[in-house]
Amino acid sequence: MKTSRLIVGLLAAGLLATACGSDSTPAAGTAAPGGTTAAGGSAAPAAGGNDCKPVKAGVLSVVTSLPGPNFWGTTKAEVDPDAIKSGIEYDLANMLAAWCGLKMEFRNENFDAIVAGQIDPKSYDIVLSQVTITDDRAKVVDFSVPYFKADQGLLVNKGTTVKTWDDVKKLTVGVQASTTAEADVQGGAPGWKLDKVKSFPDLASAYAALSAKTVDAVMIDTPINLGQAAQSGGKEEVVAQFKTGEAYGAIFGKGNGKKAIFDPIIQGLVDDGSINALIAKYLGGDPSTVPFVDIPPS
Amino acid sequence: MLTYRKAATLSLLFPPTGIPAMMHSLRAARLAREGEIESARHEGERARDWSWYSVGFGLSVYIIAFLAWLLLTNNHAVAQVFFGWSTMTDGGAWKSLLKGFWINVQVFLIAEVLVLVWALVVAIMRLLPGPACKPVRVLVTVYVDVFRGIPALLVILIVGLGLPQADVPFLGDFSDRNYAILALTLTYGAYVSEVYRAGIESVHWSQTAAARSLGLSYTQTMRHVVVPQAVRRVIPPLLNDFIGLQKDTSLIGALGVLDVVSRARFVNNSKGTLTAYSMGAILFLLVTIPFTRWLDWLIRRQQAKTLAGR
Amino acid sequence: MSFLVLRDVTKTFGTNPVLRGINLEVDLHQVVCLIGASGSGKSTMLRCINQLETVDSGEIHLGGDRVSGRGIDVDALRREVGIVFQAFNLFPHMTVLENVTLAPVKVLGFSKALAEERGVALLKRIGLDDKAKEYPDRLSGGQQQRVAIVRALAMEPRLLLLDEITSALDPELVGEVLNIVRDLAADGMTMMLATHEMGFAKEVSSKVCFLHEGVIHEEGPPEQIFEHPQEERTRAFVKRIIDAGRL
Questions:
Q1: Residue C223 bridge partners (DSSP)
Q2: Do the domains A151-245 and A25-33+46-148+247-283 match in fold?
Q3: Residues B104 and B132 both lie in one domain
Q4: Which of B251, B304, C180, C188 is most buried, by CB atoms within 10 Å?
Q5: A27-29, strands of its sheet edge to edge
């Protein structure tokens, strides 16, 4: 019967696909200049090699949640996640890998799953994904020392005036789901509650909504908004930011000891200005030039 | 009625075919007044035909015009965001999307076959006769209700994140792609099993009576007489469910796998546009449309061979 | 003991008592015709014999073995008892030959070649061997019913039940079907027919049973039932048949 032969054919095709295809191939990163990659695993550290106890021998397994424009891949440059060769966290990952004497490999995971502690700690060493440090998240994952200050910034179409929090309240504000910005404007922080909020599954949709004027503003970490403003050719600007004291941290599996290994080096990179250099290189805008707006306690 | 006056009037909304329609209608009226019924009927039919042309061509033209306006208005805003030229001509973007699309293709090729088999098993279990089989029937009913009731996204997350966490032997070690296949098979298996069940129940009991009367056992009857007839009948609704399955393969992104939709999102973020979503949509259409036409052909062939006693 | 024995068989559907106590004995090679008004229980009785329906009380014995009630190997019973239905019930997705060979291959374990050889021979007997590769929907009603008979015969049953097999046929097709039944009777097949074809019943049966209100009101040789019925109701029924020109 023709149909059963067809089904067998499809099954064969599918199984053949099993043989060929492989999913979530980790992308290999280049070692940062000046470092050598270690041949072996975690035993004797080679030059530049500190014992980072990687889960996969010879490799620093990094997880991120794509897209992360300017942090993983620069906008207008890479269109293929496998071809990422630049970005703040990409460079940072390579620096850490060099320090460990390991090759850098990264893979993509779902952001919700990352911050819910759902990524198997035995499958990665470190997460670098513009994750804001919060107490709730810290209950399920370990955070490193903060490496990136991330007050919330407001991106608007040029010409929108925002001088006070009341001005903000009049706007329809777009946020990305699962971010601290979303949590904040839904009342997560005192005085922050906004009534006209639209939540988008990803940042690109929120920015598209801003261009289409279906939202008046997009709220997310100031440096990220600055990157978008630079790309907008003058049509959009970051008109205000709001102090939250929030910062990004790298994520490690809860209690698996990686925090103790990486904290010193990360702090070192903060202290010696390496990270600031990356920020300047990729974001092109200085967060400190954006005026702060105070939020009155509710 | 003879003159199709109302239809002709309405079809003036699209003058190129509406005017001929109206002219034939008026001519029909005149002929009718003069008593030439045959010719009047003839003219009336021409009026009716032109009215139908109005519907077909008129609708098409107006829809296309609307879409064109939509794309071009507001300084090409929609066109730029959803069909941005620079992104659509970016070979690198297409290559990346195709890499991702290959994952979707693998998932639905394998899942479709598994669903076809699994759903039939479920349907038959649901129809096992006799009081001794009641627990089985209840169990299967619960499975079907639950998996039709939960969003497929939730199933993928629970299966893809939960099973490895719980460190279940064998099931805890699948790749993400296989988790997606498992989740989609469970979800769509529930839907398709209901389709099979309806098909099986639609085979008249007299067929079962005849088969059993020949001494065929319950299993043999199902296998040789009932299920073959049932399956032929349910190919169209099965087809619908499979198109849904093909699109739902994009849920694999929830597990972090870079399928076509996730890669489209990446391209969009890089380029500040939403065009990659349109490109992804084109890739899906390249698969789903031929699939639909091919299955239409299959159905026609089956029905030509064996008209089920109609 | 007779080959087929029904003793005090009752069957009720919901609130409707269709069989109220059937007592009947059929010997080998006998042809028994069941006549009676619609709803008198003819079909139900036949279906009880091969357990398509289960009896509520009473017993049925075939060849000395009990075949009604629980604990019976139903599939084995149905290998012995063939049945042909009013609506033919051929399998539409299989060719004529496949219809005929399906059960011999799957149930009796014949090889496909052997079953086909025998199937073609049977089809030849009824003159339909040229239709072996056709699908049922290409055949006329009479041809389909003849195939249905052959399909039942392919299992070599010891008893053949025929449930109003000509009632759904156009009049000009009835004859070809009845010819086969006539041949089978001449060959000594034990048969039970529920039928409205009174002329045929008179010609071919060893015994005629008139069913009325769930019991066999009168039973006897065809000459008795059709020419000198002893019971009042039988008389009335036969008279109606004759008046309708069907006898």
A1: none
A2: yes
A3: yes
A4: B251
A5: A27-29, A103-108, A59-64, A126-127, A251-253, A141-143
State the Cα–Cα distance between residues C161 and C194, nearest whole angstrom: 8
Judged by a CB distance cut-off of 8 A, whether residue B211 touches chain C is yes
d(CA B132, CA A47): 72
Does the residue C241 lie in any domain? no
Chain C: give the shortest CA distance to residue B224, in Å: 8
Distance from CA of C198 to the nearest CA of B (A): 26
Per CB-CB distance under 8 Å, the chain B contacts of C151 are: 214
The CA distance from B254 to B161, in Å, is 10
Question: Cβ contacts (< 8 Å) between A10 and chain B: which residues?
Answer: 109, 112-113
Residue C186 has pLDDT above 70, yes or no: yes
CATH of A151-245, one of 3.30.450.40, 3.40.190.10, 3.30.70.20, 3.30.390.50: 3.40.190.10
For residue C159, the distance in angstroms to the closest alpha carbon of chain B comes to: 12
Which residue type does C191 have?
M
> Is B220 in Cβ contact with C107 (below 8 Å)?
yes
Q: In this structure, is residue B310 part of a structural domain?
A: no
Tokens 């965001």: give the residue. B81
B169 and B208 part of one domain: yes
Is B258 an 8 Å CB contact of chain A? yes
Q: Test C83 with B213 for CB contact under 8 angstroms.
A: yes
Over residues B198-214, mean pLDDT = 94
- What value does the CA radius of gyration of chain C take, rounded to a whole number of Å? 18
Q: Answer yes or no: do B151 and B205 share one domain.
A: yes
- For residue A230, which of A175, A281, A163, A291 has the smallest C-alpha distance? A281
* N residues, chain C: 247
Closest partner residue to B109 (CB to CB) among A13, A204, A231 is A13
User: Using CA atoms, how far apart are residues C92 and C222, in angstroms rounded to an integer?
Assistant: 38
| CATH 3.40.190.10 describes domain A25-33+46-148+247-283 | yes
Q: What pLDDT digit, counting tens, does each position of B101-148 carry? A: 999 999 999 999 999 999 999 999 999 988 999 999 999 999 999 999
The per-residue pLDDT for range B12-33, each reduced to its tens digit, is 888 888 898 899 888 888 888 8
Distance from CA of C132 to the nearest CA of B (A): 15
Global pTM reads 0.76
CB contacts of B217 in chain C (<8 Å) are 75
Chain C residues close to B229, C-beta within 8 Å: 91-93
Q: ipTM for the complex?
A: 0.90
Three-state SS for A122-149 is: HHCCEECCCCECCHHHHCCEEECCCCEE
Please give the Cα distance from C227 to C237 (Å, whole number).
12
What part of B 29-68 touches A (C-beta under 8 Å)? none
Q: Do B77 and A18 touch (CB under 8 A)?
A: no
